[in-house]
Hints:
Layout: E1 6-12, H1 19-27, E2 34-40, H2 47-57, E3 61-65, H3 85-91, E4 99-102, E5 108-109, H4 113-123, E6 128-135, E7 144-145, H5 147-153, E8 160-161, H6 163-173, H7 176-181, H8 190-193, H9 199-202, E9 217-219, H10 244-256, E10 259-269, H11 282-285, E11 287-288
Helix pairs in contact: 6-10
Amino acid sequence: MNNPLISVIIPCHNNEKTLEESVLSIVAQTYKNIEIIIVDDFSTDTSVSIARQLVDTYKQVFAYQLPVEDPNRFNAHGRNINAGYSARNYAFTKINGDWITFQDADDTSMRNRIEAQLRLAEKYDAIHLCLDWQRYADGLTEKMFDIDSFMQTHDSSNMCIDAKTIQTKARKTKGIAFTILGPIARYVPFNIKTAKYIHKLFFRSLEPYPGTGNSPLFKKEVLQKVQFRQRDARVWPSFVGRGADRDFNFQVAETFGKSCTVLIPLYLWRQDMQNPRYNETLGRFHIMQ
Length: 289
């Protein structure tokens, strides 16, 4: 069985309450050939100290400080619009893995997330594969997800979104101005791109990338052509200026044509509502020790 090294990048900004659990959920993965790259993005709490303790305890954990703080982190209203994108780009210079994935420092993964993601990428001959998420709950991080049971009780025909479908979605959501202007479009200020009437040229659709866009698994070769872009250079941003993940994933899908999403909820997102594709009993019926 193919056993490549996988680099797991965890950007961190003031995540002292959740960083350790996030990292330990990767340490505990059923897939063991992993390196964990924490990049601290100018935290002002005790995140750096926690990261150092994790490095001292686990040989597969490495921690770095982002060298330069992003001057455009916040928009005019004080909202963090570029969370984690520059830390991820910096981490790309530190990795050794043949495959790369991410995890946010306030989320976790079920124990078989990365193993399943790799095997599915191999199965579908994808160089870039996303899964799905379910709501974080106490106790789920220590469990494995019963994929076979899940697939027996859900419509498997709608579970896999193939490369052609994703490429079509990328074209349908891409503003026509990017096709007309090409590279020049990145020099148009974001407040102009979102102006009344004009915004329709840059935002044909705000439909999200299918699957969990913050934790794709992709081959290292992707980085030769695609990395994260700052706000004004994004082709698929959100309307408020975020959308780094959306832009990255659609960019990979458009560039390589070998992306795939399999809607199996192995990523645990720490947020208030359950994924609308599932119900709150999901975890109880599809977990294993």
